[in-house]
C-alpha cells in the first residue's frame, strides 16, 4: 500500500474514533465552479447585512492562499440531530443550537485529529476551520464526496440527510482523494415550496437576506413588519427546509453529550419564553450559539412573533 493511501486510511479511522460522521479528502486548489457563483450572489446583495461575506474573496476560493503550502482539504461531518425536540407549544430554536456551541466542540476534535496526524505521520503543517474563516465548507465537503448540495443549498447525504456540521483541516500533506457524488434531489421541490419567506429563489440558490435564520440571528436592526406572521414561530434560526427534506428521514440522533440541551430548552412553552429573564437566558444558553443573538436579540425575536 502506498503512503498516500495508508495515511488517508488512518486519518479516516481516527476521525471516526473521534465521533465524526464521515471524512472525505480533496486536493487543495482554486474552486473554479464556485467563483462566478459566489461573485454573482454577492453582486445581487443576497448576503444582506452580512458584509463579512465580501471579505477575503480570493481566500474563500483558494485554500492555498489561506494555508501556505497546503495540498489537501480534509472535510468532516459531525451529526447534531437531537434525541428529543422542543415542546410543540413553543417558539422554536434551530436544532444546531440546542447544546454547546459547535465551534468549541469541533475545534477541539480537529486539534486532536491534527495532533494524531503529527504523531503518526510526522511533521504536518495545517489549520483547523469551523465556520469561522473564509472557507466554503459545503463546496469542499461536496468535492470530497461527502454529499451533494441540495436545492436548499445545504449539503445532503443519502445516509444521513443534512443535520450535521461541516469542518475542515487544510494541510500540507498529499493524500488519496475522493470524488464527488451525484445529485439525488431529482424533481423534488419540498424545500422550495415550504420556505415561508421565499428565500430559495431558484433551485440551489438561496437569497440569504430573505432567510428566517438571517433575520433572527444576523440582522441587528428591527425586524421588517412586512414579514409579520411568516416566521412560523422560529425565534432563533430556522430548520424548515431541512425538516421537510425527504432525505432527513434517515437522520439519527447524535452521540455527542455536549450537544444535549438544557432541560428548560425542551420544556419551555411560549409563555415561558415571553417571560424569560436575563438570568434564565444565561443559564439555558451558557455556552450556546444562541448567545450570538444576545438576550436583547432573542427578546426582539419573541416580541415579533408574539405581536
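Sequence proposed for the structure above (307 residues):
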Amino acid at each position: 500500500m502506498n503512503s498516500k493511501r495508508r495515511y488517508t486510511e488512518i486519518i479516516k479511522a481516527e476521525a471516526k474514533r473521534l465521533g465524526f460522521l464521515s471524512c472525505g479528502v480533496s486536493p487543495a486548489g482554486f474552486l473554479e465552479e464556485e467563483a462566478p457563483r459566489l461573485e454573482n450572489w454577492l453582486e445581487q446583495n443576497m448576503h444582506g447585512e452580512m458584509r463579512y461575506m465580501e471579505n477575503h474573496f480570493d481566500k474563500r476560493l483558494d485554500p492555498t492562499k489561506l494555508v501556505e503550502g497546503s495540498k489537501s482539504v480534509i472535510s468532516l461531518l459531525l451529526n447534531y440531530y437531537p434525541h428529543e425536540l422542543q415542546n410543540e407549544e413553543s417558539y422554536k430554536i434551530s436544532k444546531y443550537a440546542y447544546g454547546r456551541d459547535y465551534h468549541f466542540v469541533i475545534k477541539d476534535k480537529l486539534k486532536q485529529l491534527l495532533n494524531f496526524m503529527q504523531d503518526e505521520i510526522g511533521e504536518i503543517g495545517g489549520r483547523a476551520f469551523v465556520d469561522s474563516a473564509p472557507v466554503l465548507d459545503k463546496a469542499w465537503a461536496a468535492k470530497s464526496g461527502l454529499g451533494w448540495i441540495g436545492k436548499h443549498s445545504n449539503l445532503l447525504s443519502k445516509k444521513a440527510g443534512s443535520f450535521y456540521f461541516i469542518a475542515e483541516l487544510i494541510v500540507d500533506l498529499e493524500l488519496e482523494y475522493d470524488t464527488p457524488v451525484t445529485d439525488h434531489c431529482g424533481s423534488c421541490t419540498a424545500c422550495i415550496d415550504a420556505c415561508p419567506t421565499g428565500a430559495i429563489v431558484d433551485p440551489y440558490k438561496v437569497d440569504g437576506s430573505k432567510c428566517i435564520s438571517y433575520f433572527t440571528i444576523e440582522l441587528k436592526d428591527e425586524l421588517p413588519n412586512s414579514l409579520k406572521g411568516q416566521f412560523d414561530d422560529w425565534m432563533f434560526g430556522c430548520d424548515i427546509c431541512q425538516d421537510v427534506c425527504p432525505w432527513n428521514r434517515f437522520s439519527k440522533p447524535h452521540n455527542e453529550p455536549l450537544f444535549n440541551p438544557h432541560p428548560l430548552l425542551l420544556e419551555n412553552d411560549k409563555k415561558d419564553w415571553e417571560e424569560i429573564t436575563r438570568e434564565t437566558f444565561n443559564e439555558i444558553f451558557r455556552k450556546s450559539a444562541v448567545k450570538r443573538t444576545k438576550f436583547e436579540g432573542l427578546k426582539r425575536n419573541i416580541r415579533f412573533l408574539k405581536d
